[in-house]
């Protein structure tokens, strides 16, 4: 799973985005993860849990939630593509 993230995630890009605009505020991924750490972690292993980000400008919150769901649902849905499809079609909204 680490290889999957290594090939798709570049934290420097999002850090740069946070500094590009004067009128929009992008929440850095490390802050998002600290906020997500405050939630009950069993949420990320429940295939019926849904998440809404009504102001998902850059999608940082939804992306970090998706990463946690990918790990948390692995035991229930071992097939990676099926897991991704389920997460993005039934659990994340923004």
UniProtKB/TrEMBL annotation:
Species assigned in the record: Trichococcus flocculiformis
Gene3D superfamilies to which the protein is assigned, alphabetical: Vaccinia Virus protein VP39
Gene Ontology biological-process entries: methylation
Keywords: Methyltransferase, Transferase
Keyword Amino-acid biosynthesis applies: no
InterPro entries (UniProt xref): SAM-dependent_MTases_sf
Official protein name in the record: SAM-dependent DNA methyltransferase
Molecular functions (GO terms): methyltransferase activity
